[in-house]
Amino acid sequence: MMRQYELVDRVRRYNPHVNEDLLNRAYVYAMKAHGSQKRASGDPYFTHPLEVAAILTDMRLDDATIVAAVLHDTIEDTSATREEIEKLFGSEIANLVDGLTKIAKLDLVSKRAEQAENFRKLLLAVVDDVRVLLVKLADRLHNMRTLNFVSAEKSKRIAQETLDIYAPLAGRMGMQSVRIELEDLSFRTLMPEAHAMIVARLNDLQRRNGESIRKVEVELSGELAARGIPAEVGGREKAPYSIWRKMERKSIAFEQLSDIFGFRVIVNTVDECYRVIGFVHTKWPVVPGRFKDYISNPKQNDYRSIHTTVIGPGRQRVELQVRTRGMDDVADYGIAAHALYKDGRAGEFDSLTRESRSYQWLRHTIDLLSEGDSPEEFLEHTKLEMFHDQVFCFTPKGRLIALPRGATPIDFAYAVHTDVGNRAVGAKINGRIGPLLSELQNGDEVDIVTSAGQVPPPAWESLVVTGKARAAIRRASRDAVRTQYAELGKQIISRAFVRAGKEYDDQKLKAVLPRLARNSVEDVLAAVGRGEMFSGDVVKSIHPEFVAARTAGAVAQKGEKGWFGLKKAASLVFKVPSDKAHESEAIPIRGLGGDLPVRFAPVGGAVPGDRIVGILTPQEGITIYPIQSPALMTFDDQPERWLDVRWDIDESDNRLYPARIQVSAINEPGTLGLIATVIGENGSNIDHVEFITRSSDVRDVILDIEVRDLKHLTSILTQLKSKSVVSKVERVNG
Ligand code: MN
């Protein structure tokens, strides 16, 4: 087991200012915490965190990361708590260890292969300090190195997870050496035979070609040295897993692979990189299409290098990678090395040691985190910006749902299933009832509460962020509206048939659909409901002999009596038919949001108790007017739009209906307050107020209010009238 002083020495090698006391305290604390715990290998458990720390010293990470590695399993596996660690080691280290504990919990979530990509993103999104990921990868690397001690079944599961999640994550972070080792350890566990086959062949090749490889190495470095380019030339072979993948991808045999061997040329400056390429291309013929300049065009993970393939000594294809020492470190350690060598900016750090530059980077990262709550900025800094616009949540069963940032539980519900979205009435977020319109956070567990017969409110459409939810809500509300129109159409049509002395049934209507140029009965009903087709024409299509009176009952009577022939209409007292036949024929009105598309007269409204008339209004459904509304005159010459309607209000219904009143009052302070008080005390709402000043003494106030019914309205009017400052009160209908 690594001793206390050995750990300190490893850090001191790259960081002379190592906090020895901190490392020693962490060492002792973790050793005590893990106590007599053992690993599967039989070794003391404490050897594991120490090895993880050792891996991170190879990446030359700062004290906090090394200490976090030593402590990384204490909260998860021992009685240690975050509070205690914070007290002993400070909040920075406590945050790191806490982050690692969080990820360890995520490991328990079911991860099907197709979710691996999402899961990788989840890791990146949940972790708010990139050092947590570095410790996690080192942790996984050590576990993979010691995998042969656990059962075959468990080791296969861990290897698959490593291949799906952690190896690609290391790749994304630019840590190629970690990625390659994770891949090969997984490959060996998952496909031992294939792995053994490739290793055997590689050894065979090495035996046969080893000599000529060394010759190329010597020749190349000699030639470069002679041209004043000090270079490190190393032969290298592809890792077994990438060979296997290439064979799989291209369906070719091992013998057909041409680029198993390659050479890496490490020089000091970018300029030398290009001089090496110049020399190599002059000396040996270039294989076309293989030249790639990742120095002028770095890869997304900041990988920089020049690749080329030439026909080298002995007419062998030789693959070359040419890069500087700094680029090589970035290629191996990615994010961990990233900040050490920001080319072009190196100058400003010249006076600093390489080690302290690494601290600068880490400190800068921490600063970004603590400065503002802008994780976006942090992620951008570490090249993970491709994920910051997403949030990852879980269903109660552990299914991972990836959503755009800003998504709500409604988006979540539709992402699970359209039916779930359409029926959503509430959401439990992390076990607590939360609003359907809250913004989801990474790692939230969301349980959608549904109810059958629920229709998504159209207003949701503008509140969701996913296209899927938006489209589904639009479709559902379109369907609901269509159903409303069809219901209205059915009411209108069946009444038209009754008046014509005929009997309506769907089958007869079906037979004449071509005549009406519609595809379904529902289409006809909806068209009548929308006012696009007249009920009389529907009757006629089935009974051609029927001569349409072109009237609804009420209209006929109005016509006969010439109700609106008189210009003084509004002041007339109308006689409205109230016999039983009329009652049953009239369409029942249950207010807004019922089965029918209904709205109230735009000026003055209508309240239960009012004698009412319905006007079929295209795109709006029925507009309900009180019979005294002067606006009704404008429909006088369109009898086909008139509908008989009646109130059908439940006694227990507390809904409010719109009405407009005009109050003339003395113009003095407190008058408006008095009016508002009367209205408010009566349980009515004021929607809108308008003033008309008549003189300095009197002014009119026009109020749009909401009342339960005519009785309620009358009572308010009476009370207003009784006030001494009020001279006149009347209802207004447009
Ligand atoms: Mn561990």
Which short descriptors sum up this protein?
five-stranded mixed sheet, elongated, Beta Polymerase, domain 2, Hypothetical protein af1432, 19 strands, 734 residues, Ubiquitin-like (UB roll), binds manganese (II) ion, alpha+beta, 47% helix
What does this structure look like?
There is one protein chain. The protein folds into six domains: 190 residues, Hypothetical protein af1432 (Orthogonal Bundle); 146 residues, Beta Polymerase, domain 2, CATH 3.30.460; 119 residues, Ubiquitin-like (UB roll) (Roll), CATH 3.10.20; 66 residues, no CATH class; 98 residues, no CATH class; 76 residues, ACT domain (Alpha-Beta Plaits), CATH 3.30.70.260. Strands 1-2-5-4-3 form a five-stranded mixed beta sheet. Helices cover 47% and strands 15% of the residues. A hairpin with a 4-residue loop joins strand 17 and strand 18. With 734 residues, it is of the alpha+beta class. About 12% of the residues have low confidence. Helix 21 crosses helix 25. The termini are far apart. The protein has 29 helices and 19 strands. The site of manganese (II) ion has 4 residues, from loops.
In short:
The chain is α+β, with helices and mostly antiparallel strands and 734 residues long. The chain folds into 6 domains: 4-193, Hypothetical protein af1432, CATH 1.10.3210.10; 194-339, Beta Polymerase, domain 2 (2-Layer Sandwich); 357-475, Beta-grasp domain (Ubiquitin-like (UB roll)); 477-542, no CATH class; 550-647, no CATH class; 657-732, 2-Layer Sandwich (Alpha-Beta Plaits), CATH 3.30.70.260. 47% of the residues lie in helices and 15% in strands.
